[in-house]
Each structure stands twice: as C-alpha cells, then as structure tokens.
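RECORD TYPE: inverse folding
INPUT: structure tokens
STRUCTURE:
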C-alpha cells in the first residue's frame, strides 16, 4: 500500500488532520477504486494538486490527507456543492476552495500556483480540452495529469472504446499518456495517467 493510504476494517483509509483514520469508499471515489486496483497515484506528502470537479470535497479531502505537507486547490463551479466544500476546507489547512468554471483557467490563475498534479473528474463534453487548458496554465514540467474520463458525458450513443480512443488521442497531441485504466465499478469510465 502506498504511503499515506491505509487498510482499515478491510477498506482504504487516510489519516485526517486530527490523526484519525478516515475510511475511503472505492464505490464513491474513482481514485480509491484505482488505488484498490493496485495503482499508486503520483502524489507525495508535499505535492501541490489542482483538483478540478471537487464537488463536496470527499475525494479531495483524502488527497489532502496524503499530501498533508502540500496543498490541494479544490475547484468546482456548482453553487450547490460549494457550502459543503468550504466546510470541508475549513477543517483542513491545506485545502483551498475555488468557485470557478474549469473552462476558464485565466479567471483563477491569480489563485493557483504551478502544481505537481492536476486531478480532473468533470462530466462535460470537452473533458480532454478542459484538462489540456489547465495543464498549459498550471502543470509543472514533469508534472502529472490524472484524468477520469466519463464516456457518456461526451457522447451518449457512440461506442465507449471509440470515445476513449478519441479523447486519449487529443491528450497525446500535448502530453505523454503513460497509462489508461478501466475503473472497476464505474461503467463507461477510463482513468488516464499522463505526464508533461
Ligand atoms: C462527478 S462529480 C465529482 C466528484 C468528486 N470528484 C469526488 O470524487 O468526490 C463532478 C463535479 O464536477 C463539477 N463540474 C462540472 N463541470 C465543471 C466545470 N466546467 N468547472 C468546474 N466544475 C465542474 C460538477 O459541479 C460536479 O461537482
């Protein structure tokens, strides 16, 4: 198991700011599902991470536990989730909430430093395009992109393998795709690990 991620009562867990183990459900977190499958995310205790599509901050909070000496910029554009996201960030000194649309990195570029990892989990038609816009603005040289592609948000009828192939092709024009992994328990999703 990677540093910062534990097994607790048969489930994954991370250690929160108060030292308590926080269980991490792989049925509700794509990153937990990836880790349960044996993938080691390129996140260290001092990583700076830009999280696009943080929602109420559930997965982002576990990332902030792993990167406890680093920083997580947790961004979402939905007013509905912002109250919960802010409340999660209040108890975590290394998590910063950002209310913004990930399509427009210039609008939040004054708030975000260059980061080691961009993690994106956004159900939009232009998922690869959004990821690349943010890579250009914020990803350090040799930094990593972890992109969770949801095929059905891109095209509701086409063959999922064809959708994944096209999205990965778009990414390859600008970034090295290291690995693609199907997510157990998440139909029509593909995790892409890429490096600048
Ligand atoms: C599937 S949920 C993310 C769940 C979260 N990653 C987790 O594991 O806890 C997708 C989120 O992306 C957000 N989102 C969608 N399009 C966005 C955009 N253009 N900019 C910012 N957030 C966006 C939605 O508001 C939603 O909260």
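DESIGNED SEQUENCE:
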């Amino acid at each position: 198991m990677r540093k910062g991620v534990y097994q607790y009562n048969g489930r994954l867990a991370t250690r929160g700011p108060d030292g308590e183990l926080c269980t991490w459900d792989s049925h509700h977190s794509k990153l937990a599902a990836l880790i349960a499958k044996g993938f080691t995310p390129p996140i260290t205790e001092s990583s700076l991470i830009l999280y696009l599509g943080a929602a109420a901050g559930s997965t982002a909070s576990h990332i902030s536990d792993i990167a406890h000496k680093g920083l997580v910029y947790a961004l979402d554009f939905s007013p509905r989730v912002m109250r919960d996201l802010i409340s999660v960030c209040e108890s975590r000194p290394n998590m910063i909430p950002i209310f913004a649309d990930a399509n427009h990195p210039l609008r939040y570029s004054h708030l975000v430093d260059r980061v080691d990892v961009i993690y994106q989990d956004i159900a939009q038609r232009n998922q690869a395009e959004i990821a690349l816009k943010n890579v250009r603005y914020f990803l350090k040289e040799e930094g990593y992109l972890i992109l969770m592609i949801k095929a059905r948000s891109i095209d509701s009828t086409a063959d999922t393998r064809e959708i994944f192939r096209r999205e990965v092709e778009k990414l390859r024009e600008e970034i090295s795709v290291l690995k693609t992994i199907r997510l157990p328990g998440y139909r029509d999703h593909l995790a892409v690990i890429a490096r600048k």
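NOTES: The domain at 28-195 is CATH 3.40.50.150 (Rossmann fold).
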